[in-house]
Amino acid sequence: MKAIGTTGPRPVSDPAALIAFEAAEPELRPRDLLVAVKAVSLNPVDTKVRSSRQPDQPSILGYDAAGVVIGVGADVSLFKVGDEVFYAGQIDRPGSNAERQAVDERIVGRKPRSLNFVEAAALPLTAITAWELLFDRMKADRHEDESLLIVGGAGGVGSILIQIAKAMTKLRVVATASRPETRQWCLDLGADAVIDHSRPIDEALTEAGERAPKYIASLTHTAGHFEALARAVAPQGVIGAIDDFKGLPVELLKQKAAGFVWEFMFTRPVHQTPDMIRQHEILNAVSEAVDAGAIRTTLTRNLGRLSVETLLDGHRQLESGSTIGKVALDGF
């Protein structure tokens, strides 16, 4: 089958950073679905893996996908052949940049009926990340009168987290953005207020008249913002992060008895945790919210058919740091 991947760590400027090749057909595990991939989308993890993975043979990249089930493993019970699905896959198995993919049904959701495949492919990884961060890691109460600060509101995760928080909680949502177009994007998605993260965030919150947030979702540049976030967080609040860094001064949280948590959406499937099926449940809840009109796709650009050239274009856009929402592609 057709596939796109890498044979080693290369910068996006290298024409061989991604290659097209013929891959073996996926082998199904007992709870696997065989999916004909109709669309994929890109996330920062795609570029990180491309620039760091050291395979001894071509390695298929890609995580987010939407498609149609064309085969099932012996123990599959949640789906059947012909079902339209969407999912984020897992980091330790062949990816979605291929004609067909094997994926565990416990991390797959029903594709929203109201979206086409490209619109649906934009959602899974960021939706799971946002949901797990808000409800499973930071333990947000859906009914409390508190504030949620989202650092990096116009990115992929921020764009869906704004919507999930507004649709499913009573939290006041304050997003950060530094450009007029990203500020407007956050407001259009439902943010109650937007502040500028190009200056100290605690000062920006105070000048905007916002109260100290009980929950802070730090989605980008956490190390650079951390001291300001420690000053900003409410006593007994919590800061949750998803980006990569080392050596945070977490002692700054002690006097507030505030917490710090990580979110990594691949944890459940990689470690085969007993609650792995929660990702299936999260995606189905998101799908229902989309079809009910409470959440919209975060797709902002369709780059066309999947090819080495279009995928490299997507990787370049992500690495520029200027994308809003999600970039996606149709399948082969």
From TrEMBL:
<keyword id="KW-0560">Oxidoreductase</keyword>
<dbReference type="Pfam" id="PF08240">
    <property type="entry name" value="ADH_N"/>
</dbReference>
<dbReference type="InterPro" id="IPR036291">
    <property type="entry name" value="NAD(P)-bd_dom_sf"/>
</dbReference>
<dbReference type="GO" id="GO:0005737">
    <property type="term" value="C:cytoplasm"/>
</dbReference>
<dbReference type="InterPro" id="IPR002364">
    <property type="entry name" value="Quin_OxRdtase/zeta-crystal_CS"/>
</dbReference>
<keyword id="KW-0694">RNA-binding</keyword>
<dbReference type="Pfam" id="PF00107">
    <property type="entry name" value="ADH_zinc_N"/>
</dbReference>
<comment type="subunit">
    <text>Homotetramer.</text>
</comment>
<dbReference type="InterPro" id="IPR051603">
    <property type="entry name" value="Zinc-ADH_QOR/CCCR"/>
</dbReference>
<comment type="similarity">
    <text>Belongs to the zinc-containing alcohol dehydrogenase family. Quinone oxidoreductase subfamily.</text>
</comment>
<keyword id="KW-0479">Metal-binding</keyword>
<feature type="domain" description="Enoyl reductase (ER)">
    <location>
        <begin position="13"/>
        <end position="329"/>
    </location>
</feature>
<keyword id="KW-0521">NADP</keyword>
<dbReference type="InterPro" id="IPR013154">
    <property type="entry name" value="ADH-like_N"/>
</dbReference>
<keyword id="KW-0007">Acetylation</keyword>
<keyword id="KW-0862">Zinc</keyword>
<dbReference type="InterPro" id="IPR013149">
    <property type="entry name" value="ADH-like_C"/>
</dbReference>
<dbReference type="GO" id="GO:0003723">
    <property type="term" value="F:RNA binding"/>
</dbReference>
<keyword id="KW-0963">Cytoplasm</keyword>
<protein>
    <recommendedName>
        <fullName>Zinc-type alcohol dehydrogenase-like protein</fullName>
    </recommendedName>
</protein>
<dbReference type="InterPro" id="IPR020843">
    <property type="entry name" value="ER"/>
</dbReference>
<dbReference type="InterPro" id="IPR014182">
    <property type="entry name" value="ADH_Zn_typ-1"/>
</dbReference>
<dbReference type="GO" id="GO:0008270">
    <property type="term" value="F:zinc ion binding"/>
</dbReference>
<dbReference type="InterPro" id="IPR011032">
    <property type="entry name" value="GroES-like_sf"/>
</dbReference>
<dbReference type="GO" id="GO:0016491">
    <property type="term" value="F:oxidoreductase activity"/>
</dbReference>
